[in-house]
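Regression test case RT-17, inverse folding.

Input:
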């Protein structure tokens, strides 16, 4: 099975700005996504593809993983995107405006064909379906289980983008208008065992307090990370979606205390006033393993 990197922050970069990769790396982001869909006019799509391929050819394996948001599944541009981009250095494909399972299955088949032709292990390229239509949000479990490439996924929270147009909600900085479907998609991703749930981005570059509020809310409901629109947002998102040293020490204490209890023939214990049992140990081990994947 392909090992996927844990991603807290996924920084968007216009597809014709490959030179910005150096700034993206300096931001500390876990992943970069070059955008061929929304940020490029039709006349620049081919040069954008070729430029990204050049970046992929020389990208450092120790840097952030690189994704590309390709064009949607209903035109000729996505096929051209894949023909140029699938190869070494590419970690995954973000698919905009997903409608349902069929287009994911077609993409899976196409990626498998290209991987075979280019000597890549099957499943090397992950798929991140962007959940920004009512159809996708409604069918999120079916989409999440449609193929084994689905490793990163989550519901959008746009202020003026595709999802607000198709759903018709009125955006607020508190985010309550999107809380239901963000939670629904998260629940169904977890049921489908999606590797790394990622929510949508905070669109106001200058409002770092608003970003912090939404990132905390997103972490509180169970996401592992967020998409990011500007390098100045990366450090805040990484901080919020990382366990702090006190939390890690608490998890180690739980494991040690329960191991001592079990060695003494006992079960549940009290630790710092809290009842602790085997379920707490499982959670502690899971969170420590996640921290290890983040290099903590």
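Golden output:
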């Amino acid at each position: 099975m392909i090992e996927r990197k844990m991603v807290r922050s996924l920084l968007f970069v216009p597809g014709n700005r490959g030179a910005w990769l150096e700034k993206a790396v300096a931001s500390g982001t876990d992943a970069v996504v070059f955008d061929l869909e929304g940020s490029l006019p039709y006349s620049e799509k081919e040069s954008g593809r070729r430029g990204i391929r050049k970046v992929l050819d020389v990208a450092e394996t120790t840097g952030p993983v690189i994704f590309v948001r390709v064009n949607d599944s209903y035109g000729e541009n996505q096929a051209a995107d894949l023909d140029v981009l699938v190869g070494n250095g590419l970690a995954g494909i973000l698919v905009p405006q997903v409608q349902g399972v069929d287009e994911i299955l077609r993409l899976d088949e196409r990626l498998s064909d290209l991987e075979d032709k280019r000597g890549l292990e099957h499943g090397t390229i992950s798929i991140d379906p962007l959940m920004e239509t009512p159809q996708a949000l409604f069918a999120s479990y079916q989409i999440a289980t449609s193929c084994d490439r689905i490793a990163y996924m989550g519901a959008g929270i746009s202020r003026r983008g595709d999802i607000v147009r198709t759903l018709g909600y009125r955006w607020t900085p508190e985010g309550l208008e999107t809380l239901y479907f963000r939670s629904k998609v998260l629940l169904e991703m977890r049921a489908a065992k999606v590797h790394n749930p990622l929510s949508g981005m905070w669109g106001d570059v200058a409002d770092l307090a608003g970003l912090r509020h939404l990132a905390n809310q997103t972490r509180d409901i169970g996401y592992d990370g967020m998409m990011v629109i500007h390098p100045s947002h990366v450090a805040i998102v990484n901080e919020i979606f990382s366990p702090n040293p006190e939390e890690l020490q608490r998890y180690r204490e739980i494991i040690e205390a329960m191991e001592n209890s079990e060695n003494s023939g006992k079960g549940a214990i009290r630790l710092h006033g809290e009842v602790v049992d085997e379920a707490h140990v499982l959670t502690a081990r899971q969170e420590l393993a996640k921290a290890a994947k983040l290099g903590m």
